[in-house]
Predict the 3D structure of the following.
Amino acid sequence: MQTQKKLPQLAISLTDDCNYKCYYCRPSGSSVNKCTQNLPFEEFVRLLSIAYRKGYRVFRITGGEPILRPDLVDIIKAINSLGNDTTILLGTNGTLLGDYIGEFKKYSNLKFFVGLDSINKSHKGLPKGITQKLYNNLSDLSKSNFVRINMLVLNSNKEDVWDMISFCSSLKIDLKLHDLYYCEKILDTIHSSEEFFDKEYYNVNQLIPSLSKRAKKISKYPENASDCGIPMMSFNIDGINVIIKDSLKGSYYNSGCKSCSMYPCLHGLYCPIIESNGTLQPSNCINKKFHKLIAHQSMDEVEKAFDFVYSVINNSKFETIDESSLNANKRVQNIDLVSKVINEKHGCDLPCTQRVSRALQSV
Ligand code: SF4
Ligand code: SF4
């Protein structure tokens, strides 16, 4: 008998808009589909209150840049009024934090996840770098609320990892090092997604030996307490937790994933997300058969949609990913041949990583 998985967090993408245009980002931020009109405040609140009744207690607010949404503080207030047992996680690039810090500090259950790719000022090309204003905001906020920095490790900034650890340690904030997530469309206008991935992908696994040497303690990172998503490791170094998220570790997949063109995608199944256009789906999953439109639907329909998406996640099993099939050089060398095979076998001329890897196996 399959054991029941713990109810995961619920992500909510408030908007696709962002004040940054990071070249590695999707045109729609965290959302899978570009949204032209964000859900109104009242509809978000209605959907979140149904989610609360279904048992969700951890709400992760994401975007785009959620601080651009003028009613963000009201949405935080509304989540807090659902009950006194909620936790709110806010993902942000941090640039606009200063305008709201006083307001945010009122909520001890509000945790911040700030994207920062470098503290090295010579890295002018990296979209998310440190500024004096951001440093002041991080320093101020970390005294009252939990703050973690999420650093995307690329070939361009891999040398900065230890400076970033010292920086986080000086502020006593945790650090997550994660690898490049492959998207079929990115904002980079110079490279295709495939070229960009080949140029910048860095396997964060390579950091493990040096992190292990410096760590006082190594443990499984509890973000996976919900038993889905990619397993992560945490290294206690200089008083902070340094977390590694390596997409090649494997993830959780449902039997329905097997017929998906992206299988095995680099994220697998984890928490549900309400996208800014009002679709409920397992986070980042492009497979429309796992998507349900919940905006402006009856309470009964919305509840059924929550049950459906949870059942997709709950009926998933962990599978490892074959690293050799994702070997970048192999993909580059065989790109023409692979494109041909993809066209013939899958009727698609977009060589995304997963299709390429499967096509390579069949060459
Ligand atoms: S700050 Fe985040 S959402 Fe905005 S463009 Fe960069 S990666 Fe995308
Ligand atoms: S995109 Fe969705 S359906 Fe496809 S493999 Fe990934 S999680 Fe499964």
Summary: The radius of gyration is 20 Å. The chain has one domain: 10-317.
